[in-house]
Amino acid sequence: MEFLIPSRTSRPGDDPIFALNAAARARAAAGESIVNATVGALLDDDGKLAVLGGVTQTLREVPAEVGAGYAPLAGNAEFLRLVVADLLGTRPAAAMTAAVSTPGGTGALRLAIANFLEPGQSLLTSSFYWGPYKTLADESDRSLSTFRMFDAKGRLDVTDFARALHGQLEGQGRALVFLNSPCHNPTGYSFDASEWSDLVGVVESEAKRGPISLVLDVAYARYGASDLATCVDQVLRLSGKAMITFAWSASKTFTQYGLRVGALVAVTPDEAERRRVQNALSFSCRGTWSNVNSAGQSAIARILGDADLRARVDGERAVLKALLDRRVARWNELAGAAGLRYPRYDGGFFTTVFCDDPFPAALRLQEAGLFVVPQAGALRVALCSVAERDVPRLVAAIVGATRV
């Protein structure tokens, strides 16, 4: 007798990235010399989780009764106000938002799928994407479609995006698009101003055919070479023509991956529509996780709202960003000289090496004590977890494993 419903009987028991990380850690614990380039968290050069001291201290100072109490279902109002300011500053759009707190950026993505797509419909994202996008879609009884991410010149393939978006609208009457930049996971690619402008132009043209909702996944924005404003200013041109949403996360920005604090912020100038969106998102919060970590929202709100504390945390993050930037520079120096094929990479946690047989190549790397994440047509390399001194070994090993 089978008690699970049929669609749930063949679910995998572990996320592939977490499984690879566990295998790498087990071999390191047994005394092997391991380079673990799977972890999506910033580690220092001793392999320890890099943590911002100002954030840790602020969390400790949250009053016990605040941390132990329920947060409002839609989220802490001051936290949400400050997240909106963090994203939009003093732009007029900041007064046109509906926002809710979520358990990390993942929760924001889940809410967008549930509220902007019908069951059975498909979200659209780039051909290289963070694997849990598909997991979230599957779990919500939706699916995932892609457009080709890179054209023949190695730039964002806006032409194929236009084709795919048109097809979504023709086929299902609406579209939900996930765009991850700056510092795209898994490729490390950051859209430039011209690419954003072209994307916006496509959406503006296609929006006449049906409702388009954009989710800007900006989890890694504080580690990019360019300011988030490049994205925000371009995308806000769509206000009133498409639904603009931001998946905001404290996980990477404040090095608090386990705190599970994030937000979904939607921008729409129509007051009645904004009220409907706010109600729908709040209802989903109650029906999914009830409410989000109260202590975390309180601490992050204090950091965002206290100029001195924010300056301290920004300074601490700048040190960690410099650490990561040195790894990126070393990678570009060596990988470029070695002829590895990978996208433009100027900052962020990950890069992706294109190869014809990624899964056998990843197994060969594991035999040599190096762990990366294989995916269709490429290997994801998490430089965020690799010490600068190990970058030469990593590059040399990938060259050997991909040219067998």
Structural summary, described in words:
The protein is α/β, with parallel strands linked by helices and 404 residues long. The chain has 2 domains: 130 residues, Aspartate Aminotransferase, domain 1; 239 residues, Aspartate Aminotransferase, domain 2, CATH 3.40.640. It contains 15 helices and 12 strands. The strands form 4 sheets. The chain has a 5-stranded mixed sheet, with helices on both faces. The chain has a 3-stranded antiparallel sheet with strand order 9-12-11. Helix 2 crosses helix 12, helix 8 runs parallel beside helix 9 and helix 12 packs across helix 13. The termini are far apart. The mean pLDDT is 95.
Low-confidence stretches: none
Number of helices: 15
Using only CA atoms, what is the Rg? 21 Å
- What amount of the residues lies in strands? 5-15%
Would you identify the CATH H-level superfamily of the largest domain? Type I PLP-dependent aspartate aminotransferase-like (Major domain)
Largest sheet: 5 strands, mixed
Described by the principal axes of the CA atoms, the overall outline is: globular
Helix-strand topology string: HEHHHEHEHEHEHEHEHEHHHEHEEEH
Q: What structural class do helix, strand and pairing data support?
A: alpha/beta
The end-to-end span amounts to: 48 Å
Number of domains: 2
The CATH architecture term of the largest domain is 3-Layer(aba) Sandwich
Strand segment tally: 12
Salient structural properties:
single chain; 404 residues; alpha/beta; three-stranded antiparallel beta sheet; 15 helices
